[in-house]
Amino acid sequence: MVKIAPSLLSADFASLAEELKDIERGGADLVHLDIMDGHFVPNLTFGAPIIKALRPHTNLTFDAHLMVYHPENYVKPLADAGVNMVSFHVEAAPHADRIVHMIKDAGMKAGIVLNPATSLSTVDYLLEIVDYVLLMSVNPGFGGQKFISYTMDKVRSLRSMISERHLNCQIEIDGGVKAENAGKLAEAGADILVAGSAVFGKEDRKAAIAALR
Ligand SMILES: O=C(CO)[C@H](O)[C@H](O)COP(=O)(O)O
Ligand SMILES: [Fe+2]
């Protein structure tokens, strides 16, 4: 069963608790939280204090996507804020193995993220230890961008790598996911579909989530 993870990046930042309740009622499986530091990506969003304040307002799984340098500094604050899954960019982390273990030791699921043009070979060894790989299908930093078409093949290739080695690693895809490409992405092997503008950009979030599903 493919999971739908609306990204809070496209929500109304003045009403985040209400927006969370709306997607929970609408049938979302997780909520995707884009944490940007204004350095790794040219944009700035929110961090652990805001996430902690939102935690009592929903039972949804909190899926944090770190677009930051020094992701290791964010692990404990995010665990304390009630985050369930944390992923960080391989491009931002020379000591990725250590950070994966830090995340797991803090009681969360650990994921590694690849920019669209980053080769799958960079996570070859990490596949043995991560719970999921997040493939970016847009260049990170902003919502509402167009899906980069070659990442469809990347999902397929990663699915083969995982199956051949009988690993238990999920694939999450993020950026430009719409009802029009969701089916193809699931067929290619994605387990979790992140969708920001395709959910929060619509008046009726329940219908938007149903269309993706
Ligand atoms: O990580 C992200 C951007 O860096 C977001 O999760 C992603 O862009 C979601 O937005 P949309 O579905 O509108 O493309
Ligand atoms: Fe994201």
From TrEMBL:
<keyword id="KW-0862">Zinc</keyword>
<dbReference type="InterPro" id="IPR026019">
    <property type="entry name" value="Ribul_P_3_epim"/>
</dbReference>
<dbReference type="GO" id="GO:0005737">
    <property type="term" value="C:cytoplasm"/>
</dbReference>
<feature type="binding site">
    <location>
        <begin position="196"/>
        <end position="197"/>
    </location>
    <ligand>
        <name>substrate</name>
    </ligand>
</feature>
<feature type="binding site">
    <location>
        <begin position="174"/>
        <end position="176"/>
    </location>
    <ligand>
        <name>substrate</name>
    </ligand>
</feature>
<dbReference type="GO" id="GO:0006098">
    <property type="term" value="P:pentose-phosphate shunt"/>
</dbReference>
<feature type="binding site">
    <location>
        <position position="34"/>
    </location>
    <ligand>
        <name>a divalent metal cation</name>
    </ligand>
</feature>
<dbReference type="Pfam" id="PF00834">
    <property type="entry name" value="Ribul_P_3_epim"/>
</dbReference>
<protein>
    <recommendedName>
        <fullName>Ribulose-phosphate 3-epimerase</fullName>
        <ecNumber>5.1.3.1</ecNumber>
    </recommendedName>
</protein>
<feature type="active site" description="Proton acceptor">
    <location>
        <position position="34"/>
    </location>
</feature>
<feature type="active site" description="Proton donor">
    <location>
        <position position="174"/>
    </location>
</feature>
<comment type="pathway">
    <text>Carbohydrate degradation.</text>
</comment>
<comment type="similarity">
    <text>Belongs to the ribulose-phosphate 3-epimerase family.</text>
</comment>
<dbReference type="InterPro" id="IPR011060">
    <property type="entry name" value="RibuloseP-bd_barrel"/>
</dbReference>
<keyword id="KW-0170">Cobalt</keyword>
<dbReference type="InterPro" id="IPR013785">
    <property type="entry name" value="Aldolase_TIM"/>
</dbReference>
<feature type="binding site">
    <location>
        <position position="32"/>
    </location>
    <ligand>
        <name>a divalent metal cation</name>
    </ligand>
</feature>
<feature type="binding site">
    <location>
        <position position="65"/>
    </location>
    <ligand>
        <name>substrate</name>
    </ligand>
</feature>
<feature type="binding site">
    <location>
        <begin position="141"/>
        <end position="144"/>
    </location>
    <ligand>
        <name>substrate</name>
    </ligand>
</feature>
<comment type="function">
    <text>Catalyzes the reversible epimerization of D-ribulose 5-phosphate to D-xylulose 5-phosphate.</text>
</comment>
<keyword id="KW-0479">Metal-binding</keyword>
<feature type="binding site">
    <location>
        <position position="65"/>
    </location>
    <ligand>
        <name>a divalent metal cation</name>
    </ligand>
</feature>
<keyword id="KW-0413">Isomerase</keyword>
<dbReference type="InterPro" id="IPR000056">
    <property type="entry name" value="Ribul_P_3_epim-like"/>
</dbReference>
<keyword id="KW-0119">Carbohydrate metabolism</keyword>
<feature type="binding site">
    <location>
        <position position="174"/>
    </location>
    <ligand>
        <name>a divalent metal cation</name>
    </ligand>
</feature>
<dbReference type="GO" id="GO:0046872">
    <property type="term" value="F:metal ion binding"/>
</dbReference>
<feature type="binding site">
    <location>
        <position position="7"/>
    </location>
    <ligand>
        <name>substrate</name>
    </ligand>
</feature>
<dbReference type="GO" id="GO:0019323">
    <property type="term" value="P:pentose catabolic process"/>
</dbReference>
<feature type="binding site">
    <location>
        <position position="176"/>
    </location>
    <ligand>
        <name>substrate</name>
    </ligand>
</feature>
<keyword id="KW-0464">Manganese</keyword>
<dbReference type="GO" id="GO:0004750">
    <property type="term" value="F:D-ribulose-phosphate 3-epimerase activity"/>
</dbReference>
